[in-house]
Design brief:
about 350 residues; about 40% helix; alpha/beta; 12 helices
Length: about 350
């Protein structure tokens, strides 16, 4: 065993030496990016590195390689210019967790209580990127996020899928002592069965986020919050019960917003929004350019335009990048038919969980 440990110590020394060499080169690349006024984050390059390493793996899992290199990318970004990431906060929200999952622990994070504030912080260049929820597999679309895309000139740079698991958090040591529960409305909706079966008659109080709920119960007796395990650790709360969500497949999709999107990776998704006049067959006609080019649509969602009564905006996600020739042709065909068209971004398809 001692001999094996000596070999591990030697390998660790070589790993550290090579990591420092890698970081040194990354710093030089960062210097060139600043001189040429280029974005610090190159998602296509990160995806290329991960795919090459995962393809050649032997013992390590895909998830392990991704986790290790996310932190390496994070440190590299930090030393190149320490990008600031805005997210729907406060600290301990699922959005915060998704942001750190994507950007690692080394960069600067700022939490905001409203989705609109995250958009504004990116627009006014107070943050390089923002992370916001856009849809949940159980509760559906996050309306505030879609509405902000209508009025804001930001683009989607990336997407993140995060499995959502809720805990009942409290300073108390028993569910029997709880008289009120705080959480975000969507968390209550995702835990209906648990609450009705285990806490009938307990007062449910809406909060702006699961993390603000956890923060609220730190100094309040007979109270609990529904939030994630991470929030419980941050606010030093007891986990009275874990995995209280009604569906184990509960997943939230988050998007990374910025001021520009990257190059094609070959495994991309594009998001657009457009409006049409209300007439028979209008939506069918709008979708025909995609069918003609053999482009797979992955999502369609409608929202009131808020400009004219009964006029709607349609949000569509489809496979492909705006640089792809087929996508260009489909977008041009759609643009000739609709009243308004906006490309929200082209970005790598996230890993489903």
């Amino acid at each position: 065993m001692n001999e094996l440990r000596k070999r591990i110590d030697q390998i660790d020394g070589k790993i550290l030496e090579m990591l420092e060499e890698r970081i040194s080169i990354a710093k030089e690349i960062g210097k060139l990016k600043r001189e040429e006024n280029l974005s610090l984050l190159h998602i296509d390059r990160e995806r290329e590195v991960l795919e090459r390493l995962i393809k050649n793996r032997k013992l390590l899992s895909k998830e392990a390689i991704s986790a290790i290199y996310r932190e390496i990318f994070s440190v590299s970004l930090h030393l190149q210019g320490e990008p600031t990431i805005a997210y729907l906060g406060p600290a301990g929200t699922f959005t915060h967790q998704a942001a750190e999952q994507r950007f690692g622990a080394s960069n600067k994070y700022i939490g905001f209580n409203e989705i609109s504030d995250v958009f504004m912080e990116v627009l006014k260049k107070g943050a390089d990127y923002g992370v916001v929820p856009i849809e949940n597999s159980i509760e559906g679309i996050v309306s505030n996020t879609l509405d902000m895309f209508i009025s804001s000139d930001v683009v989607i740079c990336d997407e993140i899928y995060l499995k959502i698991s809720h805990c009942l958090l409290s300073k108390e040591d028993s569910i029997l002592k709880i008289k009120r529960v705080y959480s975000h409305p969507s968390a209550f909706a995702q835990c209906r069965k648990f609450l009705s079966e285990n806490m009938p008659g307990v007062e449910l109080i809406d909060m702006s986020s699961t993390a603000s709920a956890a923060k609220r119960v730190v100094d309040e007796k007979c109270s609990a919050a529904i939030g994630n395990k991470w929030a419980g650790e941050i606010y030093c709360l007891n986990i009275l019960k874990g995995q209280i969500e009604d569906f184990v497949s509960n997943t939230t999709r988050f998007v990374v917003i910025g001021r520009e999107y990257g190059n094609a990776t070959g495994q991309d998704k594009t998001s657009i929004l457009f409006s049409v006049k209300d007439r028979p067959g209008a939506l069918h006609d709008m979708l025909m350019p995609f069918a003609e080019e053999g482009i797979n649509l992955t999502k369609i969602e409608s929202r009131p335009s808020k400009i004219k009564p009964w006029e709607y905006m349609f949000f569509i996600d489809f496979e492909g990048h705006i640089q792809d020739e087929k996508v260009k042709i489909a977008i041009e065909g759609l643009n000739n038919l609709c009243n308004y068209l906006k490309v929200l971004g082209s970005y790598p398809k996230g890993e489903m969980v």
